[in-house]
Amino acid sequence: MHWKLSISLFTFWLCPMLLQGQNTISGMIQSESGEALPFATVYVEGSTNGTTSNADGRYQLTFDAGPATIVAQYIGYARQTQTIDLPPGEHATINFELAPETLVLKEVVISASEKDPARQVIRNAIRKRKYYADEVSAYTCEVYIKGLQRLDKKPNSLLGMTVTIDTGIVYLSESISKLKYLHPDKVNETMISSKVSGNNNAFSYNQASEMRINLYENSFFIEGLSERSFISPIANNAFLYYDYQMAGTIVENGLFINKIKIIPKRKTDPVFSGYLYIIEDSWRIHSVDVKLTKDNGIEFLDSLSFNQVFAPVDYDIWMPISQRFTFKFRAFGFKGSGHFTAIYRNYQVEPNYWQPRAKDPKTVTEIPKKVAKKSQKEPAKETLLSKEDFSNAVVTVVDGANEKDSIYWASVRPIPLTEIEVRDYQIKDSIGVIRKSKPYKDSIDQVRNKFKPGNLFFNGYTHFNSYNRRYFSFPTLVEGLQYNSVEGLVTNLEFSFQKRTEQSFDYTIKPGLRYGFSNKKLQAKVEVTKMINLKKRLILTGGLGRYVFQVNEQEPITPFSNSFFTLVRGENYMRLFQKYFTYFGYQKELMNGVLLNGKLSYEQRETLENTASYNLFDKTFHPNTPVNQELAATDFPKHQTLTASFRLRIRFAQQYIERPDRKIILSSEYPDVYVSYKKGINLLGGDTNYDLVKVGSEYSLRVGQVGTSKISAQTGLFLNTRRMYFPDFHHFNGNLTYIRQAEGENQFQLLDYYPYSTQDRFLQAHYEHHFNEFIFNKIPGVRRLNLQAVGSVNYLTTPVLGHYFEFGAGIEHILKFFRVDFYTSVTNGQHSRAGIRFGAGF
């Protein structure tokens, strides 16, 4: 192993030297006491060609031949420069020993209203915030990202499943991307190379476009980190959230830089703590060293540190040249840490306002408002980027990005690998072949395939054949045993056999066997799903059999809930019927954001009667045929139906990540729109003839610090009802249990299941607002519980029902996972019912 490591290191240091016309320097960055300074910033003065030191304090920098001044800086230490002039192709070792930063006292004028000179510095920075936020019209740059995650502790099992992952480095990846930006919000990234330790076929999940943290914005949202937007320490309303202290002033390259300590006024607000460095007179951000903790509302992490260093580029504009996230986590018996480091270089910048190109990077040109406005009205004829240079692909991974060899990475990698990282690449790349072998996969499967009692209750049982990528799954005991008034005790065994590719599933076969001990009927079915094209989301489905189904095909009540209320309360809420069926389904994304689903089915349907009577309270079950306000009797004779349905989901300006092997759908700032059509066809023995058209929309909206709103609406109309039966009605998702039904399409919490099903027109709307921590984090004592408030309104109208409203108020994140709501309903101005609903809320 030692000789392999030596060869790797030799190749690593040699390759950059072979680049013609370029010089390479390397060395150590440490303190005066000899302590290594990890992630220190090193760059060529007057350029954005830079790097950072690795976790051991070692750095490497390649630059064009000729004289150059090398800058090394580390937050908390004084900036140091060294001048070098090497012949082309030469390599030199330059070490830096940085002294602790020297804070000087500068004469300041403090008004009687200011407690600390830091407040006046921040006021000046806030005044310039909008100017610097809009300063750049467009830019392009190259971004190198290294991500590393370590696992220091793990449980042996979780929810009945064996944890097979090892401790140590569990994720190590590198990527190089071209990033382009057009003000105010156009961002595209092209990933040209990607490397993941131990998996040569994988693409890293590093994303430069997601690491764009801009403190010149009043607030910004980081997906997956928190449910709230974080407030910048120089936001317009920053004084409502922060206190400030002047830690001192640093003199650096002729600039006075104010070191400001930022202190949250309330530790539970979504704010930072740490230090902000502001340049005197220009009031720009020089660097950032801040931290977030669980108190600030971050999820899944114990802490997150954020470090950012700026440097001047063209037109006296300062841009980030290095950025780092360092985090620690602990949950469910797992404990670990990691970091993502980004190096930005080779900027091309187009200013938003006209200003002369300054020779002295220390000079800051103040732009008169008249000139700025004129420049906005009269843009330059030649622009760096235009809207035509951007698409809805936020990230595009080029073909072959994951096929670069070690020589390539040694020549382009700006941050040298540590010995631990070198060994991780070597070991995992070596054993990657072993891990793909049949003996290794069989040995892992032998452990995972051992049956444990927890499989019965939590996640069922899956038999793995990883080498052939075949998986056979069995249901949990809760899924396999049910009770209802029609069949009595039921064994419902729905299995799943799946064949996978490296990217996704290839096909899935789901057979099902169901037997009712009261009605003594055996049911059977089989359904197949086949992936045809992953990028176009082209999927074919089909199925046939005889089985029992709910009258509402959206299944508003789960079998577990129904079994509980049937046995314990004597309430048989689920209404069932039997059908012989065969169907064929089709799905394809016709164009970006337009997803088509189609289905053609032929069925023979029969009503079912109650055959069971047992329940704990010896209550008489209601008939299996529902009561409905539009239909005197909802039972129906045996009949056949031929049905065709189509559904278009339209997501305007849908963003996505485009990889060579798949398309990963992201969000859109616009509402989703749904259009569907269903037709009962009176052909080939089909006994129905009706037409139903529905239009709906869903939208999620972040409302600053107040939380997130979820809005949905749907309206529909039967154009033709010449011949139809009760299962063909439009049904609404009601709920009469104490268990809050999962958030889904058009859910009511107090509505009865079938009385208001309609064969006429209808309109329903749903609004739910999650206040996140906006309310409870301001209550002393309560805020430690991390509770979150939620409010909701549901509305439904049909010609027979009139106007129905539900109003709800609840608390979620109780013990991190649970939610409780109180609902009350009003029908045509009269109170209908009220109730409490319990559910998951995390």
SSE blueprint:
Layout: H1 2-17, E1 22-31, E2 41-44, E3 50-52, E4 58-64, E5 68-73, E6 80-84, E7 91-93, E8 96-98, H2 117-133, E9 136-153, E10 157-158, E11 161-162, E12 168-182, E13 186-196, E14 219-220, E15 230-231, E16 242-252, E17 255-264, E18 273-279, E19 285-293, E20 303-312, E21 318-331, E22 334-351, H3 369-377, E23 393-397, H4 406-412, H5 419-435, H6 438-448, E24 461-465, E25 470-474, H7 477-480, E26 481-484, E27 488-494, E28 496-500, E29 505-516, E30 521-533, E31 538-550, H8 559-569, E32 576-591, E33 594-607, E34 639-651, E35 656-658, E36 663-665, E37 672-681, E38 689-702, E39 708-723, E40 762-772, E41 788-798, E42 802-814, E43 818-827, E44 830-840
Parallel strand pairs: 1-7, 1-8, 13-23, 23-35
Antiparallel strand pairs: 1-4, 2-3, 2-5, 5-6, 9-12, 9-22, 10-11, 12-13, 14-15, 16-17, 17-18, 18-19, 19-20, 20-21, 21-22, 24-25, 25-28, 26-27, 27-29, 28-29, 29-30, 30-31, 31-32, 32-33, 33-34, 34-37, 35-36, 37-38, 38-39, 39-40, 40-41, 41-42, 42-43, 43-44
Characterization of the model:
The chain is mostly beta strands and 842 residues long. The protein folds into 3 domains: 13-102, Carboxypeptidase-like, regulatory domain (Immunoglobulin-like, Sandwich), CATH 2.60.40.1120; 117-409, no CATH class; 475-840, Porin (Beta Barrel), CATH 2.40.160. It has 8 helices and 44 strands. The protein has a 19-stranded antiparallel β-sheet that branches. A 13-stranded mixed β-sheet has the order 16-17-18-19-20-21-22-9-12-13-23-35-36, sandwiched between helices. A hairpin with a 3-residue loop joins strand 12 and strand 13. Residues 1-19 and 355-381 have low confidence and may be disordered. This is DUF5686 and carboxypeptidase regulatory-like domain-containing protein. It holds the Pfam family DUF5686. InterPro entries: CarboxyPept-like_regulatory, DUF5686. It comes from Marinoscillum luteum.
